[in-house]
Design goal:
about 280 residues; 13 helices
Amino acid sequence: MTVSGQRRLTLTLSYGIVLFGAVVFIFPIAWLILGSLKPPADLMEVALPRQLTLENYVTVLRNFPVGRYLLNSLIVAVGSTSLSLILGGLAAYGFVRYHFRARSFFLLFTLLMRMLPAIAVGIPLYLLFSRLGLTDTFPGLIVAHAGAQLPLVIWIVHGFLEDIPAELTDAGLVDGCNRLTVLFRIILPLAAPGLAVAAIFSFLLSWNDFGLSVILISTPDLLTMPVGMSQMNLLYGVRWDNLSAAAVAYIVPTLVLALLLQRYIVRGLTMGAVKG
């Protein structure tokens, strides 16, 4: 086989693998959307819908407080993401710009904290937050989610800040800026792709969280969407038509966020935002 033939074969195999991966990832989402548009009687049929209907969405919005669940999840996700970005950005800047004893150990320790499952810290958090009066409150859940997101944010932003020359900090200090001004006006804008990647991963961690949310929140009006959907099953049985419509409404905000931050995400992933 000639060199051009080998290249053509390699290119064909590459496109085939990419196409197969795209089908594997997109098929469940497409099937979910089609299921939400099927009449209840046709939902379990493995076939394209004979007719499309919005009846499932109308039923879900009329019978279940989906809007409230989504709003609760949005409040918690935005609040925890903002808090983790602020604290994580400051911590990552400290790890990069300040050399102190046991710096590598503390940086590794933050990564080890990310490996703890929610159930391992959920009960201690519940006992602690109960004494502080933070259970069944948005601030308590926001702090809990931010703590779970913080190690990931630190490592992502740390990788970006390492690529920014230290001379920029020195130049800002020479021009009369203090360190916080240099950080917020010079360093963080240059690390915007890394912050965008950290933001969307943090948002998804909070948006999809079930363990901490079900432990710390029990008031029906404060339930997040994952916990609320589980309550829908418990109270009314497994209605796949309603769950499909609720699940589609659940994934829309994450798709919108990904589209809004797409430019920064692509830059972040190609610039090695998760470099150790």
